[in-house]
Every structure is written in structure tokens, then in C-alpha cells.
Design goal:
The chain has helices at residues 27-44, 82-94, 121-124, 131-147, 156-166, 190-194, 215-225, 240-245, 262-271, 286-293, 306-310, 322-333, 336-350, 355-369, and strands at 12-17, 53-59, 74-76, 98-101, 113-116, 150-153, 172-174, 202-206, 231-235, 254-258, 274-277, 298-301, 315-317. It has a seven-stranded parallel β-sheet, with helices on both faces. It has a six-stranded parallel β-sheet with strand order 10-9-8-11-12-13, with helices on both faces. The longest helix is centred in the N-terminal third of the chain and has 18 residues, at 27-44. Helix 7 packs across helix 12 (322-333) and helix 10 crosses helix 13. The chain contains 14 helices and 13 strands. It is globular, with a radius of gyration of 22 Å.
Length: 370
Amino acid sequence: MPDNQTVPSAMLTIFINGRFLGRQPTGVDRFAIEMIRAIDELCTNCDPSVDGLTFQILVPRGINPSQDLHNIPTRHVGHLQGQAWEQIDLPLAAGGGLLLNLCNTAPIFRQKQLVVIHDAATARVPSSYGKLFRLWYGLLIPTVYRRAASVCTVSKFSRDDLAQVYGTREHVRVVPEGTDHMARVSSDQGVLDRHGLRSRPYIFAVSSLSSHKNFGAVVTAVELMGSTDFDIAIAGGQNPKIFAQVGQNLPASVKYVGYVSDAELKALYENASCFVFPSLYEGYGLPPTEAMACGCPVVAANAASLPEVCGDAAAYFDPREPADLARTLDSVMRSPSQRLQMKSLGLTQTKTMVWSSAALTLLSEIRRVA
């Protein structure tokens, strides 16, 4: 749609904050991308949930997203970039319409907007963020939380935690995430050959530089386990500080696969004996549900939202006790029958985790406030 094309006055336009489309995708961005895609599909199917609504993504100039959408156009607005664009150009472009913000941040002084705040991480685990980031979020998030016409979040845990940190709002809608995006991905099995993961079973984990992701617990647990008859495949970036904490005694069975594509990630999920997720704090926890949807048993921390999201399908451990993780991994790896049961429970747990359902929940909230 050209920038100057208008929408029929009979339609109510929902403007979507598209600032996130100009950066490397994160888990929060995955939520936004899949939510927009699901709404677009509902529009294609003429679903009653979108009757009378039309959508438009607003982005800074210079950002040319490659989203495959059929009904939701992208419009370049303003002349600023980054936070300045979001705080000044974006609200001006949205005018009197309802602004939909899917990735935590939003114009701080705007009231006519719906904001999805995924968690209270900057308040709960401040050591994971830089000083300036903490200061800005310390002002932005509580102000938006109190001022916006509507606030949504992604789990009951997160809703309750936001209330504890920022105060109770009369209405915060929970919009759980989906996993069916993994079904659209064709797995790249070549990643197994490239990293020698065909000869023995392997545990899969994803490294992170953020301290609250607690990857050091995995490293320590692997060191405690010593020699094993299985490998440990680690995706993501290596954090030298984490490995320095536990020394250089990791066995040769640890294999680093580096950053992976969605296709490679799916193959690693599908072929792993189990996936380990040691995070201390999560507003939702998408990776373990992705793993479950791919038929991979999950070993998860019994912390934050993870028991709510993973339900009875995961084997849990105390994330502050690497020895407990080592014992849990050893138990799971020694029991094919337990892994088979966990796989079945995981597939059942994620069966109803679909983005169209999440979009319908969000759309009902949009109608409530619009």
C-alpha cells in the first residue's frame, strides 16, 4: 500500500508499532512476528474477529521488513530512529487511533494504546542489563503499565509479577504464546553431520550471555557429570566468563554448534535426547515449548513461569543447584521409557499452543478498548 493510501472511514484502523522489525529478532520479537502473521491469516480467512478492523504497521524510514503479509501493509513514518522515533514520530503518526505495541516498549505519554509487557525482568534481574538500559526501563515500563488503556502479558506468572513490582491494575489480559511456527520450518538435518552428532545421543542446550538465563549451571552440571556415553550440544554464543568460573575441565563430549538457523534449531530439537533450560527468570519461556512441539523431552528449572508453561511434561530441577541438574539429566538419559513418556506429554502440552488462538485473545482485548 502506498504511504498516502487511505483506509475507508467505516473501518477502525489499528496501528502496530513496527520498530522491532529493524533489529535482530529476539524471543519477544518472535511473539510480535507470529502475532502479526496470525492476525493477517485471520484477515485472509475473513474471520469474524477482524470484522470492521484494519491494521497497519508503522516503521521508521530505512527499515524494509520482509514479512510475507497479505492484508497488513507497512507504512514508513517520521524522520527519527530508535527510541526517539518510538517516543515522538510513532505517536504522531498513530494520531487518534489505537496503537498496538507487542514488544514491551511504547510511547511513554500515550494513553490510547495496548501494550504487551512480557515480564518485569529489568526489575527482577537487573544484573542482566546495562545501567542506562535499566534506568530507561525503570522509567518507561512502570509509566506505560499504569497509563496505557490496556496491558497484556504472556503468562499468569508474569501478570502476578507485574502486579507485585509495579502495582495492581484493574485488568491485565494473559495472551499465551504459540508453538506452531515450528511446524512451518523444514529442519536442516545437515547440522548433525557438520558437528558430529550422529554417533551418540546428545543433550541440547542454548547458551546466553544474560546472567538470569543461568547457563553456568549447565556448564557446572556437565563438569560434575564427567565422562558420559552421550554428547552435549550447545548452540548460541560462548560466554568466556561462564567457562572461566568452572575451569577448563569440560569433557570432549561438549560440542559447540554456534548460532543456528530456525531450520538447524528444529533439527537439533528433533534429534536431541532432551533439551535443558536452566533459566532463573522467564515471563514465558518459548524455547522449551518449541522443543516439546518438536518431540524433544524437556528438563527445565522449577522457577518463574516455567512450571506453568511446561506443566507436567517437563522434568524439573533447582536452577541454583547444578548438582540437582546433573542428577536429573543423568536420570533422564538413563531411562528411554521416561524420555518417551516426556515426549508424549510434551506433544500433548503444546497441542493447543497455537498463534491463532493467541491472536483471537489479543483481538478480543483490542475490541474491548477500541
